[in-house]
Structures are given as structure tokens and as C-alpha cells.
Amino acid sequence: MIISLLLCFCLSSASSSKLVCHMTNWAQYRPSDGKFTPDNIDPFLCTHVIYALATINSFNQISPVEWNDEQQFVRLNSFKNVNPDLKTLLTVGGTVNGISPFVAVVAKPESRAAFIKSAISYLRTHNFDGLNLAWEYPGHNGSPQDDKERFTLLVTELSTAFEDDARDNRRTQLLLSANVAALAPTIERAYEVDKISPHFDFINVLTYDYHGSWEPVTGHNSPLHRSSLDSGSHIHHNINSSISHWLDLGAPAEKLLLGFPTFGRTFRLTSGITSLGAPANGPADAGPYTRTAGFWSYYEICDFLPSATVEWIPEQEVPYATYASSWLGYDDKRSFSSKVQWMTANHLGGAHVWTLDMDDFSGTFCSAGAYPLINHLRLSMGFPPKPTTTPAPTTTKDPLADICRGRPDGLYENPADKTTYFQCHVGNTYLHHCQSGLIFWDSCKCCDWP
Asked: What CATH number is attached to the domain comprising 8?
């Protein structure tokens, strides 16, 4: 309890941090309580929301993927009327017949120019604040090796065009970001890191999918550190190694965002061994809502855990769970806290979450309220309390409203009820309750025994 309270003192640390949350346009097709649309978004949860995914047509112009994308854009961007500080970006990329459309875009100066002109027009028309590039990856999957340098040209030209657009039209400059690889061989083949980094507002490092059912033994989806069981190239399949490599190649720490997955990856055990590194063959059954073999959303994980055996991997600071022949490597509040501590110690620019729609966004499954993982991440990063959506009574003035007027930000005792305390933030008052049996002590600014 004391540790959680101390997090409240980190409010100032969040002032320059980003909490960027991705949403997907295919989540609307999940059944029943798994269906997600922009209407499910909490406008005060994240600093930025990125809408995935739009594509690029044969004329090098941005094009929607789903029949109702442009209607969903309106619903998403309407939240900026509720929270004017919220920023929205559009992810563009994916694949067409297995090939990234960026291969054709970067091939010639005129095709890059057509794409850039289309991007500015499309983003402005649909009220987005920026563009997120999703090319997995230059120099891979049918993309020629020269695309490493061509990607640099695209990023540089986009940045310049965004600057020109802002100046010429007296508009706020559009943001530019990208989803980028986490493994060293891919990074080195795909990017001129020192040349592209200055042009991005932030860089989303995909620090998950390190291990999965394509491998013959169990491994964690998103480990913080290497395991003593790792050998060969697998010693680099972890967050610490990935971020260190980006830094070594010249990326500024404050541009890098650490990826936080709201999903886990599954394996099918083939023996009585259930530990990390246990023999496996393929994935466990697909989840009933995500319906894709090999991974489960966090809300599907919440349904699995009560019958499972949960273990912690101390070396990697992440949990796994097993039941019968199913093995699951996933993230929980404890592992998110560990990653935030590591992220803060390494002075990164913040976090990006894949995805909003795989957390328990409705609070239906995990008995921990809506968005339990992302809300915990937000708290761990030191963001201030979210505004309440419940209007105060209009008939009688709330005596608590003036408690924090003129007071510095911080925690204060409530003389009328020692089991509660006040948090003041920019003049606003928030009432918190101590855990049962504890009272608030002003001497330590914490809840403790009487």
C-alpha cells in the first residue's frame, strides 16, 4: 500500500512522458463483449491514440481498409472535444498480397511525393494530428535491401513536408512516428537509425513477440531481460537488449517508446514439463474472442487464470501460467510496474500499448474495472488522476472542492476521517481511501497501521 501511494509523488515525471495507445479497426468484428469500436475509448486514459490501419493504393495515396473507417475516424477524433490535450494519429501500412505498399511508395521520388501530398491532405481532412508508419520492415519480406536508404529518404521528406505545411497554412505541425523492429539483425538491415531518429516525434519499438508458438520450447512474449536458458541469438530476445541496441545506434532515449502488450502468447506443451523452456508444439487453442491461434487478449487471460498455475520468472520479471497442456507467457500489473521502473531508469520517452482493444476495456472479465492494465500503467508512470465524468451536485456546494485551493500538489490528511486522505493536483481535490484497517499518517504521507 505504501509503495502504491508513493507513486503519487511521481506526478511531475509524467509531464514529458507519452502514453501512446493503439486501437485496431478489426476489433469491431470480435463477437459479443470482445467487440471494440472508438465508442469504447476513455478519452483521458492515454496521451495519444493511434488508429490502425489504413493502406496505400496503387496511386500512392492513403486509402481506408474497412467499409466504415472514415465514420470511425469521426468518432475517435470527437473525443478531442472532451479532452483537448488528446492527440490522434493514423497508422498506415500493413501488406497487400504479402508485400508492404511502402515498397512501391519509396521506389521513386515522384511516388514518395504523391504519398506525402496524399498523407497531409488525408490527415487534415479527417482531423488527425499525425501519421504513424507501419512497415515491417524495410529490406525484409519482399522489400529490396536498398529500401533501407529509401526509407530514410521517405522519413526525411515527410518531416520537411510536415514543417512546410505547418508554416504555409499556419497549422500545428503534424506528428510523425513509426512502429519499428526490436531485434538487432532486423534493425541493422532495415534502418539508418542515426539518420531517421531526428525526424520522428516518437518511435514505437515493438518489444513483444520475442517468443511464440513457432518455436519448439516455451518462451515469454515480452521479457524484460534475458534468461539463463537463452542461447545463440535468443540472448537478444528481450527488452533490455532491444532498447540498448537502438540507443547504441544513435536513437535518443527520449524518442524511444517501450512497447507494453495487453496480450500473451501461448504454447501447447508436449510433456509433463511446464517451466520456461519446456518442450512444445504449436499454440494452445485460440481465444473465444480474438479467435487467432497463438495469442490471447488480456481479458481472455483473465478467464484462464483462475484455473491455472501462475509462476513468476525472476530473471525476466514477467509471469507465465499453465493449465493442462496450455502454456501462456503474458504481462500483468506487476510486470508492467517492473517495466516502468526500467523505462524510467533509462530515460525513455514513454510507453506505447498494443492494444486498447485487448485490455479488459469494458471491465467485464477481470473484476478490476475498465482498462485494468492500462490504468495501472498510467498510474505507474505518474500521470495525475483522470477527471471525473460525474458532475458535482448543483444544489449544495461541495465542501471538499476548496481543500486544495492554493495548496501545492501532494498528499494531505483528512482531519474528519483518518481512513481517507486528499490528493491535490493543480488545485483539484481527489479523495482516496486507505486499505481496510489502515489510517493515513501525514508524517510519512502513507497509509499504515494505527
From this structure: 2.170.140
Q: Computed over its alpha carbons, how large is the radius of gyration of the chain?
A: 23
**Nearest-angstrom CA–CA distance, 41 and 136:** 27
Confidence (pLDDT) at 442 = 80
CATH of residue 344? 3.20.20.80
Q: What are phi and psi of 135, to 5 degrees?
A: -120, 110
Enclosing domain of residue 221: 16-263+331-380
3 Cβ contact partners less than 8 Å away, ≥ 6 residues apart: none
Looking at the domain assignment, is residue 298 inside a domain? no
Quick one: which of 421, 427, 434, 410 has its CA closest to 11? 410
Angle at 322 (CA atoms; ends 319, 325), nearest 5 degrees: 145
Q: Would you state the pLDDT for residue 398?
A: 52
Task: For the chain, give the mean pLDDT.
Answer: 91
For residues 91 and 110, membership in a common domain is answered with: yes
Domain boundary among 380, 411, 442: 380
Note the pLDDT of residue 13: 43
Strand partners, 165: none
Closest CA to 350 of 320, 319, 374: 374
256-286 pLDDT tens trace: 999 999 999 999 999 999 999 999 999 999 9
- How many domains is the chain built from? 2
Residues labelled as active-site residues: 136
Distance of alpha carbon 138 from the chain centroid: 23
Amino acid sitting at position 440: F
Mean pLDDT in residue range 111-120: 98
Neighbours of 111 (CB within 10 A): 16
What CA–CA distance (Å, rounded) separates 1 from 368? 17
- Cα(353)–Cα(371) distance, integer angstroms: 12
pLDDT band at 391 (very low <50, low <70, confident <90, very high): very low
SS3 70: helix
The domain boundary, picked from 343, 358, 380, lies at: 380
C-alpha cell of residue 39: 465508442
Q: Rounded mean pLDDT of 167-177?
A: 97
**Hey, is 435 helix, strand or coil?**
coil
Q: CA 84, 261, 15: angle at the middle one, nearest 5?
A: 35
Q: Which ranges of 217-282 does DSSP label H, i.e. alpha helix?
A: 239-248
Distance CA 239, CA 111 (A): 36
Closest CA to 200 of 236, 143, 246: 246
Rounded Cα gap, residues 56 and 134, in angstroms: 11
Calculate mean pLDDT across residues 314-327: 98
Answer yes or no: are the C-beta atoms of 290 and 381 closer than 8 Å. no
pLDDT at 14: 43
